[in-house]
Amino acid sequence: MTRQHKDVTTSVTSRFPTSSRLPAPEVRPLPEAPTSTWRIIGPGVIAAGVGLASGEFILFPYIASQVGLVFVWAALIGLATQYFLNMEIERYTLATGETALTGFSRFWRHWGLVFAILTVLANLWPGWATSSATLVTYLWGGDVTWIAVGMLVAIGLILTLAPVVYVALERAEMLKVAAVLVLLVVGAVVAISADAWADVPQIVTNASIPIDPLGLAFLMGALAFAGAGGGQNLVQSNWIRDKGFGMGRYVPRIKSPVTGKPEAAPSTGFIFEPTDEHMSRWRGWWRFANREQLYTFVLITFVSILFTSLLAYSTVYGRADLPKDIGFLAIEGQVLKDTVGAWFGTLFWLIGALALFAAALGIVDYTSRLVADVLKTAYVKQAKESTLYFGVVWVLVLVGCVIVLAGFTQPLILLVISACVGGLMMFIYSGLLILLNRKVLPGPIRIGKGRMAVLGWSVALFGVLSVLTIIEQTGKLLGD
């Protein structure tokens, strides 16, 4: 190795904080950027698929059923903010093959543990499974509790028996996205009234923050869960790494201990020298990653929120008998049966149940990925990440079953709790992403001033919302 080459190598690794557990990354070439966009699309679809859940089928439609279209604008704000968050999370992983959580842990060993605990707290409540089970009872009857337990066990089996977990997850979420889009296209033609279409401009002309009667916690939950939210954004790192984006190409994927051969992913990553050739490849990867997120995650999610809100507004807005819980979906489905046809009301409940089940599948997956990555990186380096992953999967499944069997089956409350914790997480890691991508990465691939300003907005947005929500909820607990 020449003296000049040694100097360049030293310069690209010297900015990384190191410790005995997190040594400097290894220098390797950046793989070539993809020539076929369609062959590598996937992480954005998974993000949209997992995100097409509480916000799209419950929170925003519920808001539309109560106050109309005046809060739909918040979905676009939430999605735009999350787009830039996701891209800064992806920037670090594209450049290093490490997850953003590993990057945070380079500054303080326990940052990963903080986010792992918050993610578990947000997702321990199986609100998505109970929501899906509730819709199943509208179709065929039965007991929500036992249906939800069966769904949780099925999720554990699916994730355990899939030979390569990412591939199974990608296929499940792509199927779900396709089913939801079919529902929206059909609904736009046969179910959304002309009056509802005429009121679409109210999204802008009557935009407001309807704290009364909904409450700030509920609105924050909707904004934070417009798309992804909370720990799901952080796991964008793991998904693009498993898909082989950028330097993630060097990291093994999580495989089933039953049907595949588990591989231990390295706890630290890689970095490339910013030569002319590598920078040309980097620009290709960066363009592709931005487009993949924009055209899949952002576009699919916003269209879904808009159409499900219009569907609720067209069918149940203004009804005096509308329950203030997930039961509004029962009335919405019945109205669709009466006005469009029995087939469409059934289709609405069926695709809703499928969408929420697939969301629960993705949530158990990403929570387990995040926790396993943290444990492997900072605490039990000798363990296999695959083994840790499947252990966490079954802990989440079993705890979820206990919670449901104990009687906590009201999904709307569980989803608001999850969303508020998610908003607090986003406040914290928005600031950490500025530090990580500004201080650690080589100059040519570092975050620029424009995107730093957007992350600053994210810090302010979720910080203010978190503080106001804590004040509101504390007041309720004290009986004010």
Give an overview in words.
By secondary structure, this protein is mainly α. The chain is built from 22 helices and two strands. Strands 1-2 form a two-stranded parallel sheet. The protein is globular, with a radius of gyration of 22 Å.
Topology:
Layout: H1 3-13, E1 26-27, H2 37-40, H3 43-51, H4 54-67, H5 73-96, H6 100-107, H7 111-123, H8 127-140, H9 144-161, H10 165-190, H11 194-198, H12 202-205, H13 211-214, H14 216-224, H15 231-234, H16 236-243, E2 270-271, H17 276-316, H18 328-339, H19 342-378, H20 385-405, H21 411-439, H22 449-477
Parallel strand pairs: 1-2
Biggest sheet layout: 2 strands, parallel
Strand content: under 5%
Strand order of the largest sheet: 1-2
Tally of helical runs: 22
- Stretches where pLDDT is under 50 for at least 5 consecutive residues are 1-8
Helix-and-strand structural type: mainly alpha
Terminus-to-terminus distance: 70 Å
Tell how many strands the DSSP assignment holds: 2
